[in-house]
Design brief:
With 342 residues, this protein is α+β, with helices and mostly antiparallel strands. Helices cover 25% and strands 28% of the residues. The chain has three domains: 66 residues, 2-Layer Sandwich (Uridine Diphospho-n-acetylenolpyruvylglucosamine Reductase, domain 2); 113 residues, Uridine Diphospho-n-acetylenolpyruvylglucosamine Reductase, domain 3 (2-Layer Sandwich), CATH 3.30.465.10; 104 residues, Alpha-Beta Complex (Uridine Diphospho-n-acetylenolpyruvylglucosamine Reductase, domain 1), CATH 3.90.78. A hairpin with a 2-residue loop joins strand 15 and strand 16. Bound molecules: uridine-diphosphate-2(N-acetylglucosaminyl) butyric acid (EPU). The site of uridine-diphosphate-2(N-acetylglucosaminyl) butyric acid has 18 residues, from strand 13 and helix 7. The site of uridine-diphosphate-2(N-acetylglucosaminyl) butyric acid (EPU) has 18 residues, from strand 13 and helix 7.
Length: 342
């Protein structure tokens, strides 16, 4: 079952990460099939070489050159697995672009992922951090995924429970980090969609547009408009979306913060409270600040941007300074949502 693949050396990754960092990979290889991936993982030349898996490169920051093998997931394909009167289950290759899948589904009238319009990145990366936006998380439509075990080359299937989804989290960011390569994802969409307009910014937008009974197409368009109005387009300014996760803190800590900062926004998160990192960072005065080519976006304080030639180290230094200032002012630790690779 060996399949050909081609290895490039000292490969510039700038076109493969949306932050636009010009880090070099010692080896780089794009894989278009499960068999090619299995052959690559079994290749004797790379047994002692660290490897890093990349999808759309929209959630990664290379702090320096990568002295190992970067594998670019490029398995394509969207096909119908099964369908009945109500639902349709799709098999999607991990290398498909997430937003293209959303557009395809919306066009066909299949509901469930329209709120996740315009999220950069690939389909295979979506379950790793259980992508979410505007009131919907991937896990709501997720059925299962297939992944190749790096050590054995075996193809295994994971159902929803086995993925242990959480807020921007799954088993693939924890116990199984780096041990599996996701090759395909199965999603269940609705043929008679029920729309979700619970997220405030989304319902406000629909109202502003005078839309009372939105279709999934209306939702998708509204989400695209909101995102375009406050999130920078990676094709124009390098960025990786939200750089940090929204911190989840105890009720006690929140009450204390609220007594000093009565305007602090918050969302319930089980028996804890989620606080928007954007607000904390904004309060510390970082929004719109620029240091060389590294900066904090002027419309969304949670987005760190590369105006051109910032190095990964410069971006990371800025991120760390933000962490320190938020910790000093609010006593809250910010954790990167982005994968930091050094
Ligand atoms: N806010 C500020 N200053 C800012 C921006 C926002 O004070 O510069 C305040 C807003 O007033 C609001 C709160 O922060 O009260 C939350 O802002 P927003 O609704 O923009 O959402 P977020 O919590 O910053 C999250 C996700 C985004 C997702 C949006 C919409 C995380 C880490 N981020 O952002 O996801 O698009 O909600 O659902 O959960 C991503 O993961 O890359 C991403 C962009």
């Amino acid at each position: 079952m060996s399949q050909s693949f081609s290895i490039q050396e000292n490969f510039n990754l700038s076109d493969y990460n949306t932050m636009g960092i010009a880090a070099k990979a010692r080896y780089f290889c794009s894989v278009q099939s499960i068999e090619a991936l299995q052959s690559l993982l079994a290749d004797s030349r790379f047994q002692d070489t660290p490897n890093f898996m990349m999808g759309g490169g929209s959630n990664v920051l290379f702090i320096r050159d990568y002295d190992g093998l970067v594998i670019h997931m490029d398995i394509k394909g969207i096909s119908i697995d099964q369908e009945d009167g109500e639902d349709i289950t799709l098999n999607v290759g991990a290398g498909e672009n997430w937003h293209n899948l959303v557009l395809h589904s919306v066009e066909k009238g299949w509901g469930g992922i329209e709120n996740l319009s315009l999220i950069p990145g690939s389909v295979g990366a979506a379950p790793i951090q259980n992508i979410g936006a505007y009131g919907v998380e991937l896990e709501e439509v997720f059925e299962s995924l297939e992944a190749v075990e790096v050590k054995t080359g075996e193809l295994k299937s994971f159902n929803k429970e086995e993925c242990r989804f959480g807020y921007r989290d799954s088993i693939f960011k924890n116990e199984l980090k780096g041990l599996f390569v996701i090759t395909g994802v199965k999603l269940k969409l609705q043929k008679s969609p029920k729309v979700n307009t619970s997220y405030r910014a989304l319902s406000d937008k629909l109202e502003e547009k005078g839309i009372r009974n939105p279709s999934i197409k209306d939702i998708s368009k509204a989400v695209i408009e909101i995102r375009q109005s406050k999130l920078p387009d990676p094709a124009e300014i390098g960025n990786t979306g939200s750089f940090f996760k929204n911190p989840v803190i105890s009720k006690e800590q929140f009450d204390e913060l609220q007594s000093t900062y009565p305007d602090i926004p918050s969302y319930p998160a089980g028996d804890k409270i989620k606080v928007p990192a954007a607000w904390l960072i904004d309060q510390c005065g970082w929004k719109g600040k620029r240091f060389g080519d590294a900066g904090v976006h002027k419309m969304q304080a949670l987005v760190i941007v590369n105006y051109g030639n910032a190095t990964g180290e410069e971006i990371w230094n800025l991120a760390q300074r933000i962490q320190v200032s938020v910790k000093e002012r609010f006593g809250v630790s910010l954790t990167p949502e982005v994968n930091i690779v050094s």
